[in-house]
Design a protein that fits this description.
The complex is a heterodimer of chains A (206) and B (317). Chain A has 206 residues and is of the alpha/beta class. Helices cover 40% and strands 17% of the residues of chain A. Chain B is mainly α. In chain B, helix 1 runs antiparallel to helix 2, helix 7 runs antiparallel to helix 8 and helix 9 runs antiparallel to helix 10. Classes of the chains: A alpha/beta (206), B mainly alpha (317).
Chain lengths: 206, 317
């Protein structure tokens, strides 16, 4: 475990050096509250940058949710994904023998961990935030006491856009908004629209 | 240890600057005791943060100058890198610009400073204005995204000109051969930096003491006419009093100091206009109390090329 912690710390340090990532908290981080951080997704580096921007004690209890198809393809990736980041790896294509992603995420939440999710479902290469997948609503329904924190990741998509091999060393900013909860009698569509709007509202005006 | 006369002169200069910093820190402590309201406390805290950052910046510059000319070139390459980083982070670029940005950061920036180290003046002067100007839009066009193409190409070129080309004229002073001034080029670098940066400080001080008439609230809410005139006159006087550091006589030093101070002011002014347009106060957050790297060197980037050409035209052989 000690080696994994060291690997995680050095990856975080490297990421912060490379991206200059600066977190801005609209509401100070709660060290003992369970959270689901949901962010816009434009780059493979997103979850690492978000994870590295969390205060160290929160990092220990926060698990990124990532696509199994990417993280299980090689032994090194599997090791980093499962051991270093303790990711919750979910299948992205639904199959009969595949475990249900919501169940996997719920298990982690039930164990008391916090999660990092990207409700757009896949990396977004356009300019507008895509509609959210319904998973975030099902999680909110199963865990009404958990706060859902929107996190706008600014610039990371420009550091390393899809198809690029060399990153441009821009400075990234992560804006953490106020935690949201599912309201009584709120419909699925209402919740998805509200959380998506909360994330859009955090984005700096271009 | 045997120090050359040129090094002893620099040492004396830095001793003087450190004496001023000690005085500034002491004044800061006195003001801190006397600040009672919320607003004045915030002002004094910012003042002290700025002074502390000056200690670090002057110390670093002194150390680099003691290490020699190569270290100075490396330092300015790093300053350009950080400034360009801040500039591009705040300007809107698109996926199609990725290649042009890679060229800027990893080719034009290092090559520009390598040309200084290898004393290649001719290519140093045209690399970015000619070759960067032509090659960057080509590589952006290969990204085959035409959205706001001219605007994007202009932004990349502009960032490279301000953050790399203009700033590189500070260490470029090392390339100049001046009669009876051999081995003392670092003094010109010290003169330029000291005069222009002190102008920023004096404008701040005079503005806080006497400032009433705002020059342009839209662009720079804290800049006042009183601060501008007081600051430029004071640092012009400082420049004149430092003529012994340079190949200039007293009047030449005063006139040159005046020119670079005015340019330095407009450098800060123009870059403020860009910041306002982008809706931010500072370019970054690297230097406590000052904002980003580009906030600190904006005036130098406008003053340096003109200073370089004045010295080159009238003094260099």
């Amino acid at each position: 475990m000690a080696f994994e912690a060291l690997a995680a710390a050095s990856l975080c340090g490297f990421t912060q050096l490379l991206t200059g990532a600066r977190p801005i908290w609209r509401q100070p981080p709660m060290l003992n509250e369970q959270r689901v951080y949901f962010a816009n997704h434009r780059s493979h580096g997103d979850f690492l940058t978000l994870w590295a921007s969390l205060p160290a004690p929160l990092r220990k209890t926060t698990r990124p949710v990532a696509g199994a198809d990417y993280w299980l393809t090689s032994r090194l990736r599997r090791y980093i994904g499962e051991q270093v980041f303790r990711s919750v790896l979910i299948p992205r294509s639904l199959g009969r023998h595949q475990p249900n992603p919501i169940d996997l995420m719920s298990t982690a939440l039930a164990a008391g961990d916090s999660l990092i999710i990207f409700p757009e479902g896949t990396r977004n290469l356009g300019d507008e935030l895509m509609p959210f997948k319904s998973g975030i609503y099902h999680l909110a329904q199963a865990f009404p006491q958990v706060g859902f924190v929107p996190v706008w990741i600014e610039n990371l998509g420009r550091v390393m856009p899809k198809g690029a091999f060399i990153p441009v060393p821009l400075l990234c900013t992560l804006i953490f908004g106020e935690a949201l909860q599912l309201q009584a009698a709120e419909s699925k569509q209402e919740f998805l629209t509200r959380t998506r709007q909360a994330l859009i509202d955090l984005a700096p005006v271009n | 240890m045997n120090l050359s006369p040129a090094s002893i002169t620099l040492l004396q200069l830095f001793a003087g600057v450190f004496a001023v910093l000690i005085a500034a820190s002491l004044i800061g402590q006195v003001l801190k005791r006397r600040a009672h309201s919320e607003a004045s406390r915030a002002l004094v805290d910012n003042l002290n943060a700025r002074t502390n950052a000056w200690w670090v910046m002057v110390g670093l510059l002194g150390l680099v100058m003691a290490l020699g000319e190569s270290a100075l070139i490396v330092l300015f390459a790093f300053i350009s890198f950080q400034a360009l980083r801040e500039f591009v982070s705040l300007t809107h670029t698109r996926r199609g610009d990725h290649r042009a940005l890679l060229w800027s950061f990893f080719f034009f920036l290092p090559v520009q400073y390598w040309l200084i180290a290898s004393q290649w003046v001719g290519l140093f002067m045209i690399l970015i204005p000619v070759y960067g100007f032509l090659l960057l839009p080509i590589s952006a066009a290969i990204g085959s995204d035409t959205t706001r193409f001219l605007e994007r190409a202009a932004k990349v070129q502009w960032g490279l000109m301000i953050c790399v080309y203009c700033l590189s004229h500070i260490p470029a002073l090392l390339m100049l051969d001046i009669a009876d001034f051999a081995g003392r080029q670092l003094h010109l670098v010290a003169f330029l930096i000291l005069v222009v940066q002190s102008s920023d400080v004096f404008q701040y001080v005079w503005g806080k003491l006497l400032g009433k008439r705002k020059i342009s609230p839209n662009i720079s809410p804290s800049k006042t006419l009183e601060g501008l005139i007081g600051g430029i006159l004071t640092s012009t006087a400082l420049g004149a009093s430092l003529f012994w550091l340079t190949p200039f006589n007293l009047w030449q030093a005063a006139l040159i100091a005046l020119i670079i101070n005015v340019l330095g002011f407009f450098g800060g002014f123009v870059l403020s206009a860009i910041k306002r347009d982008r809706g931010v106060k500072d370019w970054g957050w690297m230097i406590e109390g000052h904002g980003g790297m580009l906030d600190r060197v904006d005036s130098l980037s406008f003053a340096a090329p003109v200073f370089f050409h004045i010295v080159r035209y009238w003094w260099a052989t």
